[in-house]
Amino acid sequence: WRPWEQSTGPRPDEGKATAARNGDKGGALKIDRDNLRALKRQVAHLLREQRDLLARLTEWRRIGRVTFRVTRRDKNMKIEHSCGLQR
User: What is the value of pTM for the model shown?
Assistant: First the structure.
């Protein structure tokens, strides 16, 4: 008995396209995962830089008087500071 001889398979083009994707392993998903990993690395790097900057600012504040003012104009951030060491 040879059942493949009795099977007609998908006849419309939509069915053939669906059947052609049966063995797909999700390659596009792998690309998205790789992009997500790269984005996570970039975010981790930026957070590390911000944590280091905050540690330096905290140290400056501890040894002296530091004031900061953050202004935002046209999506550009400007940080102004003044530092007067306590004697």
Answer: 0.42
